[in-house]
Specification:
Number of strands: 8
Structural class: alpha/beta
Helix content: 10-25%
Strand order of the largest sheet: 1-7-6-4-5-3
Shape: globular
Order of helices and strands: HEHHEEHEHEEEHEH
Number of helices: 7
Number of domains: 1
Radius of gyration: 17 Å
Largest sheet: 6 strands, mixed
Distance between the termini: 38 Å
Length: 247
């Protein structure tokens, strides 16, 4: 680990640093609230490592599609490592990241998601961002040893996530789990800003807790625990709208 720490400056990496605790709890999920509270409004320092989030989660995986940050923060609460790559990342390094991440998912780190970054440029001229509940590390270059040290420190039960013992979300047969494999999963206003889709298309079923979740309701200063609006559907790659959402 010391060798990795000694190499951080050469890789353009920040230290693995604890971030301000923004709490948790669910957004109500109505189109009006989601439009009024995009990620840039509710997460003062992005990529976020805590904060209010959608009631659903994303399936474990390595994706080329865009995924709403408000969805992925819920994954962090369940002990996930989310790794983002920015537009400036070298294609060969993104490919190396994806290969590394899939090996980890198939091995000991099944609480992991890799996806393109959906915000403006990453801070500190970074091309890669590693996030866990309460922690973040930024790097200009991808290095598998740096990534592994971060994952080992924060993945699942090793981290401080409030619901870190929940099993990985590996299938859409689990309630409240969305699959970004085929298309973007973006809620208003990101669906039109980034995805080019029409907001509020389709239907959304009433909210149900993520399987195994102990979260009973919203956290401090959060909206009441209520389902996503029946008129709202993310731009997702699933066949038809999700049948259940998480709370």
């Amino acid at each position: 680990m010391q060798a990795v720490a000694d190499n951080l400056e050469a890789l353009g990496c920040t230290p693995d640093e604890q971030q301000p605790d923004l709490g948790g709890g669910h957004l109500s999920g109505t189109p009006e609230e989601l439009v009024a509270e995009p990620p840039v409004a509710i997460y003062p320092d992005r990529p976020a490592s805590s904060g209010r989030h959608l009631g659903q989660v994303a399936k474990t995986g390595v994706y080329d599609t865009l995924i709403d940050e408000r969805l992925l923060v819920h994954n962090l609460e369940h002990g996930y490592i989310n790794v983002y790559h920015g537009e400036g990342a070298a294609p060969e390094q993104v490919s190396e990241l994806k290969t590394w991440a899939q090996e980890q998912i198939d091995g000991d780190f099944d609480h992991m998601i890799v996806a393109p970054w959906t915000g403006d440029a990453l801070p500190d001229e970074a091309n890669f961002a590693y996030t866990a509940w309460g922690f973040r590390q930024l790097c200009r270059e991808f290095d598998p040893e740096v990534a592994e040290v971060f994952a080992r420190a924060h993945h699942g039960s090793a981290g401080i996530a409030p619901e870190k013992t929940i099993p990985a979300h590996t299938g859409t047969d689990q309630q409240g789990v969305l699959d970004p494999t085929e298309e973007n999963i973006l809620f208003p206003p990101l669906d039109t800003e980034l995805g080019g889709g029409e907001p509020n298309a389709g239907t959304q079923a009433p909210s149900e807790p993520v399987e195994g979740s102990t979260e009973q309701g919203p956290g401090p200063d959060s909206a009441p625990d209520s389902p996503l609006d029946p008129s709202l559907e993310p731009l997702s790659g699933t066949e038809g709208p999700p049948t259940e959402t998480a709370s």
